[in-house]
């Protein structure tokens, strides 16, 4: 039913979280391939290399060594060729100040890493829906955090 | 032969006519109503300056027309009535010696009768008294002048007569300025009767001395107390008592002249006093004074100047010597001050010197430029002070301030560091602590979903305990984080519709409200300026708190009300009577609390109940209190066991 295999890129330094994300993505009703990097620097190196196939969406953990997710977000939104890629911010914490900041930087959504695997699946599914439907440009702020109320 | 009657009578007994002719008094006889001059003797002719041949035999007013106006009526009266007329110092203008002369006469006009009694003429006997009258007039005139000078004199004068000093006369200055009496109060009275206060003073003794010895007494700046009609007044007087003598040399009175020098003496006293004070002040401050002649570059100074530079007071400081003692580094400063003084007229510097004994010191000078009439600076005058101690004190103070500043900076750094550590603690608790916890949660969930069938009942029980413990820990971390964030929150105050805010909170808490069968009732809560998300938290925490501590036996009712209320000094929660306060109250019908804990319930981790009885982290009310304080407000909890709890919040508007 899906026309296209989604190419998703995850940047997270936590191995368990990468595994959980990958597991959950398998349960999501979208065909998707997951590329993984373990820090911000690696992410930006990947994105800025020549001939790189541009992913359909990025999932960035905030708290990463070397370059954190917010810095990456800012750089991506500053780059003409990368600017249009939907970016989802992923984090354990939910600090309203941070949420507001990344919303203003132009992220598509905020995923709070949930305590339940089911929720994780649902949230990733929701994010994929947004990507596929192309509803990633400036979502209403109330709907910005995908799996919780802000 | 006819004898010579004249020589004959002359030689023996002169006849009467000759006697009359030679008499030293003017005699003339007029005859008839036209007053034809029958005879006039030599004296009379001399008086009128006429020759006998011009005068005798002709009517009077023909030969002496100038007297007609004065005497015609008198002569006519005498001729007509026969009563004699006596003139005394009678003025007549005579044309004689080639000019008009105002002359005075004592005279008598006497009618001459014939044997039948009819009047046929008038005999005039006249004595010229012009000189006497003039003399008298001059005397009167000079007496008038004397009186006038006496009365108008700026020097007070008076004359005492007799041994009891009767006041004979006094002048205006004396009346007005010193005696302060009216003339009729004093004239003709004895001095000591009018001014009895003088008896206590030295003046009666002095008057007696002058009166008896005849020696003039003079005195300067004598103190005198005089009772005027207004008050007793103290005077300083320069005065003189001079005896007045009769023709025979006896003393009959005293002339007293007085100059009031009170103002002068008092002014001088004031000046002296001021000088004295200044000198004392200058000496007390050890201020040196100096003046510099700009044309010769010669400086003159008070002895203190030499002492400041470490010399004996009698040493004379030259400009050269002073410059030698100035700290070499500070010479430019002094030179610059001099240049400025030439521009502004004001000289000021503070520089270092070496005292004569080599010890360092500080001096401070203030000076003013003196100009001649062409605005050319000719001199400078000023003061100079040793400020070594002051400087030392100032430097010590500065050192202490620097030291304290350094200490404070150090403390600030420490505080900043602590703040940073706190922030990183908040971060660690928010992120790093939650991270493993979340994983515990996610994997326990996974196990619970997929592996629960393989666990024993005991295993499942333990497993659910792990889950609830990790959830509890999750909440704790979130609340702590919330608490820390409330502390540092940026304050975006906005007018907020509190009714809508409450509604959205109750909607969020819908499930727990329903399951507790609770009712939330509220009045109009208004639109105060607040930080909205913090009040969302506040409502959430307080409502949750009420739901948590509800009574099992009755359904919870939570009342939320708001009003605007004026400040009241007697209420520490809204102490400013000048202000309006937003008063929000949240009350319930729950289990309440012991009033002794009304403060403690707002402290972090203070729980009044065991965890098994009531769930919670013990941070909720602490967050509420912090939010209220963030808004500059106060919160108060009231309640009693079993009677519900009430929270009153006051925010200054």
CATH homologous superfamily placement of the largest domain in chain B: Histidine kinase-like ATPase, C-terminal domain
Largest sheet of chain A: 5 strands, parallel
**Rg of chain B:** 63 Å
Helix content of chain B: 40-55%
Distance between the termini of chain B: 161 Å
Structural class of chain A: alpha/beta
* CATH class value of chain A: Alpha Beta
Q: What share of the residues of chain B does DSSP label as strand, in percent?
A: 25-35%
Largest interface: A-B, 18 and 17 residues
What is the CATH homology-level superfamily of chain A?
Answer: Response regulator
Query: What is the count of helical runs of chain B?
Result: 22
Proportion of strand residues of chain A: 15-25%
Q: In which order are the strands of the major sheet of chain A placed?
A: 2-1-3-4-5
Structural class of chain B: alpha+beta
Mean pLDDT of chain A: 89
Radius of gyration of chain A: 14 Å
Summarize the structure in words:
The complex is a heterodimer of chains A (150) and B (653). Chain A has 150 residues and is of the alpha/beta class. Chain A is globular and about 35 Å long. The longest helix of chain A is centred in the last third of the chain and has 17 residues, at 117-133. Chain A is 39% helix and 17% strand. The relative contact order of chain A is 0.17. Chain B starts with a helix and ends with a strand. The longest helix of chain B has 45 residues, at 388-432. Chain B has 22 helices and 22 strands. A five-stranded antiparallel β-sheet of chain B has the order 2-1-5-4-3, sandwiched between helices. Chain B has a five-stranded antiparallel β-sheet with strand order 7-6-10-9-8, with helices on both faces. A five-stranded antiparallel β-sheet of chain B has the order 12-11-15-14-13. The model of chain B is unreliable at 5-11 (pLDDT under 50). In chain B, a hairpin with a 5-residue loop joins β14 (360-371) and β15. The chains are: A alpha/beta (150), B alpha+beta (653). Chains A and B meet through α5 of A and α17 and α18 of B.
């Amino acid at each position: 039913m899906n026309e296209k295999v989604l190419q998703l890129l995850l940047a997270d330094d936590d191995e368990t979280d990468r595994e959980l994300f990958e597991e959950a993505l398998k349960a999501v009703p979208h065909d998707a391939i997951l590329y993984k990097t373990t820090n911000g620097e690696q992410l930006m190196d990947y994105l800025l290399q020549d001939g790189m196939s541009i992913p359909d969406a990025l999932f960035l953990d905030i708290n990463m060594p070397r370059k954190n997710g917010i810095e990456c977000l800012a750089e991506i939104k500053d780059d003409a060729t990368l600017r249009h890629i939907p970016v989802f911010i992923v984090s354990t914490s939910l600090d309203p100040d941070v949420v507001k900041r990344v919303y203003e930087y132009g992220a598509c959504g905020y995923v709070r890493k949930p305590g339940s695997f089911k929720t994780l699946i649902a949230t990733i599914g929701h994010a994929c829906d947004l990507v596929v439907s192309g509803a990633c440009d400036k979502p209403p702020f109330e709907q910005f955090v995908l799996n919780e109320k802000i | 032969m006819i004898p010579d009657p004249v020589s004959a009578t002359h030689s023996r007994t002169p006849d009467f006519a000759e006697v009359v002719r030679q008499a030293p008094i003017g005699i003339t006889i007029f005859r008839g109503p036209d007053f034809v001059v029958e005879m006039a003797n030599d004296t009379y002719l001399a008086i009128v300056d006429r020759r006998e041949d011009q005068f005798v035999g002709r009517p009077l007013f023909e030969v002496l027309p100038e007297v007609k106006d004065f005497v015609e009526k008198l002569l006519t009266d005498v001729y007509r009535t026969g009563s004699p007329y006596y003139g005394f110092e009678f003025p007549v203008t005579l044309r004689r010696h080639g000019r008009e002369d105002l002359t005075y006469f004592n005279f008598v006009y006497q009618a001459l009768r014939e044997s039948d009694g009819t009047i046929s003429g008038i005999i005039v006997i006249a004595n010229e008294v012009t000189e006497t009258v003039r003399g008298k007039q001059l005397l009167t005139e000079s007496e008038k002048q004397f009186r006038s000078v006496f009365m108008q004199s700026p020097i007070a004068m008076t004359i005492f007569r007799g041994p009891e000093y009767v006041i004979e006369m006094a002048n205006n200055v004396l009346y007005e300025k010193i005696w302060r009496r009216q003339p009729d109060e004093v004239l003709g009275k004895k001095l000591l009767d009018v001014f009895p206060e003088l008896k206590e003073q030295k003046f009666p003794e002095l008057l007696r001395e002058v009166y008896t010895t005849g020696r003039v007494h003079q005195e300067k700046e004598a103190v005198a107390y005089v009772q005027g009609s207004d008050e007793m007044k103290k005077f300083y007087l320069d005065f003189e008592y001079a005896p007045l003598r009769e023709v025979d040399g006896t003393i009959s009175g005293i002339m007293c002249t007085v100059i009031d020098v009170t103002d002068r003496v008092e002014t001088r006293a004031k000046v002296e006093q001021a000088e004295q004070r200044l000198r004392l002040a200058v000496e007390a401050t050890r201020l040196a004074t100096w003046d510099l002649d700009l044309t010769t570059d010669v400086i003159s100074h008070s002895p203190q100047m030499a002492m400041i530079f470490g010399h004996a007071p009698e040493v004379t400081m030259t400009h050269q010597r002073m410059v030698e003692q100035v700290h070499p580094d500070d010479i430019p400063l002094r030179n610059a001050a001099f240049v400025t003084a030439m521009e502004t007229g004001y000289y000021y510097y503070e520089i270092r010197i070496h005292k004569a004994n080599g010890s360092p010191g500080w001096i401070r000078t203030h000076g003013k430029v003196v100009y001649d009439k062409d605005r050319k600076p000719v001199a400078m005058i000023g003061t100079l002070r040793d400020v070594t101690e002051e400087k030392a004190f100032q430097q010590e103070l500065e050192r202490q301030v620097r030291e304290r500043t350094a200490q404070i900076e150090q403390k600030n750094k420490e505080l900043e560091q602590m703040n940073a550590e706190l922030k990183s603690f908040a971060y660690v608790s928010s992120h790093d602590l939650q991270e493993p916890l979340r994983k515990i949660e996610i994997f326990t969930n996974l196990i619970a979903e997929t592996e629960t069938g393989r666990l024993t009942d005991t295993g499942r029980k333990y497993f659910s305990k792990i889950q609830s413990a990790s959830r509890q820990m999750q909440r704790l971390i979130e609340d702590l984080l919330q608490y820390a964030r409330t502390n540092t929150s940026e304050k975006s105050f906005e007018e907020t519709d509190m009714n809508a805010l409450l509604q959205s909170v109750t909607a969020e808490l819908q499930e727990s409200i329903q399951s507790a069968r609770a009712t939330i009732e509220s009045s109009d809560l208004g639109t105060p300026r607040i930080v909205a998300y913090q009040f969302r938290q506040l409502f959430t925490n307080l409502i949750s708190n009420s739901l948590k501590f509800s009574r099992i036996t009755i359904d919870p009712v939570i009342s939320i009300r708001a009003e605007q209320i004026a400040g009241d000094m007697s209420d520490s929660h809204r102490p400013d009577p000048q202000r309006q306060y937003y008063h929000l109250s949240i009350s319930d019908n729950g289990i309440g609390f012991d009033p002794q804990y009304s403060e403690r319930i707002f402290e972090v981790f203070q729980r009044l109940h065991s965890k098994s009885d009531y769930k919670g982290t013990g941070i909720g009310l602490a967050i509420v209190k912090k939010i209220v304080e963030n808004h500059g407000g106060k919160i108060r909890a009231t309640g009693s066991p079993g009677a519900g709890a009430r929270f009153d919040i006051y925010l200054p508007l």
